[in-house]
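Write out the 3D structure for:
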Amino acid sequence: MKKIITITALAVAVLTLNAVAQGPGRGPKQHDSSFLDISIDEVKAAIAAKTITLLDANGTQSFKQGHIPGAIDFAANKITLAKVLPADKKALIVAYCGGPRCHAYTAAAQAAKALGYTNVKHLTAGIHGWMDANEATQKGS
C-alpha cells in the first residue's frame, strides 16, 4: 500500500512540475486568447475582397492534401515568413489548423505577431470546419 501511495505522489509531482514548466496558458488544451476568432463567412468575405493572408498550420503533408485556396504553408515558410507576408503590418492575417480542438495555429499566429502584425486572427473552424461547410480546398503546394 505504501508503494502505491509513493508512486501516486510521484506521478502527481511530475504532472505538477510539467504544468508549472509549461507556464500559464501553454497547456495543450488552452487557446491563446490574444488572437480573436474569425468565422468562415468572414474569411470568405475577406478572400473575395483580397484583404486576407491565410496561414495553414497543419503541416506540409496536410497542406498538400488540401488547404484553403491561397493559404500559405506555415511549416514550409516559417523561417522566411517575413518575405511571404504583406508589407502592411495592419493587414489581416488568419492562422488556422485542424479545428476547434487543434492548437497548432498558435505557432503561426505568434510568428506573425512577433513580426509586428497587429491584426492576427484565428479561424477556429479550421480546415475540417471549412470542408464541412462545403467550401473549396486547393491541393498541392
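The first strand starts at residue 36 and ends at 38.
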